[in-house]
Amino acid sequence: MSLKISYSKKTINKSSSNLVFFVNEKHNISGLKKSLSYSEFNYISDLSKSSDLKKNVFVFEMNSKKKIILISIKNNLKTSDIESLGAEFYVRINYGKNCEYFLNTDSAISKHDNFIGHFLHGMKLKSYEFKKYKTKKESRIISLQVYGNKNKPSTQTQLKFKALEEGTFYARDLVSEPGNILHPDEYTKRLNSLKKEGLKINIYDQKKLKKLGMNALLGVGMGSIRGSYLVTMEWNGAKNNSKPLAFVGKGVTFDTGGYSLKPARFMEDMTYDMAGSAAVVGLMKSLALRKAKINAVGVVGLVENMVSGVAQRPGDIVKSFSGKTIEVLNTDAEGRLVLADALTFTEKKFKPKFIVDLATLTGAIIVCLGSEYAGLFSNDDKLSKQILKAGETVEEKLWRMPLHKNYDKLMNSKNADVQNINYVGGAGSTTAAQFLQRFIINKTPWAHLDIAGMAFSKYGGALNSGGATGFGVRLLNKLIEENYE
Question: pTM for this structure?
Answer without folding.
Answer: 0.96
